[in-house]
Amino acid sequence: MKIYRSALLRFAPDGSPLYDSDGLLATAPDAQGQERVVAAGSWQALQAQYTQQAGAQVQHLPGRLIAPGFVDMHIHYPQTDVIGAPADGLLPWLEHYTFPHEARFHDRAYADGVAEFFLDELLRNGVTTALTFATSHPNSVDAIMTAAQQRGMRMIAGKVLQDRHSPDGVRDDTEQGLIDTETLIQRWHGVDRLGYAITPRFAPTSTPAQLRGAGELAARYRDVWIQSHVSENLDEIRWVRELFPAARSYLGVYDDFGLMRERAVYAHCIWLDDEDRALLREKHTAAAISPTSNLFLSSGYFDYQKADAADFRYGLASDVGGGMSFSPFRTMQAAYVVGREGHAKQGFSLKPGALWWQHTAGAAQALGLGGVIGNLQPGCEADFVVLNPACTPLLARKTAQAETLDELLFAMIVLGDDRLIEQTIVSQAK
Ligand code: GUN
Ligand code: ZN
Asked: Which GO terms describe its molecular function (predicted)?
């Protein structure tokens, strides 16, 4: 058994943060060799029971904070090198930068190199699980799955389906794309900690036939994820209306093809109406909120108050390469700013514990992985970060002055980046 003594952050079932300034985290392998949390709480209350056990190894981490590994609900590993490509908006950005870059992933060796860099960058930023797009090339999925398996990470990925309105080099064939999807599900889903996501890029780049086939696969493989984009940009929405005139709304297109269910995750969800929001709730479908991407591409502002009123699931995401940073601290900071925005919608202040929850336990719950990752309660897989709140002179000064948990968490959300992450520990399946 491994025992860590440091400050400890975790979350109650209602999402409120639980904090021990002198905490104990005990982890041990289960029968399958998966390291899991055995106990978490105050050192005083738990140390007598756990430190006396045979083989207990205690690591004392003074001045450090242990917190759940971050969960990124929407990212594109092949866009690692597209970060910071300027464009007038989503559609020109896809055409000029993203599609030409993604065409390179037909080359397995190239995909391997990017996949390895990408996963190391996630870990360096404290992200232990991500739901990621690959490209339309099946071997781009093999690349990311192989690299994640080597690192023992819980990763979910899928081959992009895009059989129209896409240039040569990234466009797939309607039927072949679906056959490849099923082959990849069988090859990777449920292997070690890996999961597969059926991945239509977005409604404009798949024919109705391909969307129908994706929905059929989603019905046949119920515990496989679904990921796509919805209601990100006004030009995109106009285009969807022309292409699918019979649909009630953009989100309605996905519903019409059986692509809304538990474990379906739609990135952005900015320009929804109340019926769309009610549909997300009814179908147990989640929104991935990507504030740094929405600011970079000038897409719009997610409406937290309407989301909470409709009570659908959501969590935070970087959306690299539309997103500007791999760091969950940058994403939480941007989410706070977007919450404050008071011109396009009503502004309010998201609480630091709620922001942190959206990138850990809340994101895990939205993915259908509540109680598995994103938290440090007994039974959770032991994916966690060791933070050094004194990693820069200003953070050292601010966090030392914090009198409440909110003040401590806010100092890190506003001032933090990859320097806060001293260690990222992944619960390797043996
Ligand atoms: N919509 C369709 N494809 C993409 C993509 O790669 N990034 C973003 N942000 N939106 C999309
Ligand atoms: Zn995206």
From this structure: guanine deaminase activity; zinc ion binding
**Which architecture, in CATH terms, is 70-366?**
Alpha-Beta Barrel (3.20)
314 C-beta closer than 6 A to ligand 1: no
- Ligand 1 pocket residue status of 319, Cβ below 6 Å: yes
94 lines ligand 1 (CB under 6 A): yes
Residue 49's Cβ-count burial label (10 Å; 0-12, 13-18, 19+) is exposed
**Which ligand is in closest contact with the Cα of 202?**
1
Q: Which atom of ligand 1 is nearest to the CA of 133?
A: 6
Provide the 10 A C-beta neighbour count for residue 325. 20
User: Are the C-beta atoms of 114 and 80 separated by less than 8 Å?
Assistant: yes
pTM of the model: 0.98
Residue intervals in the chain for CATH 3.20.20.140: 70-366
The verdict on the CB of residue 232 being under 6 Å from ligand 1 is yes
User: How do residues 239-272 score in pLDDT, each as one tens digit?
Assistant: 999 999 999 999 999 999 999 999 999 999 999 9
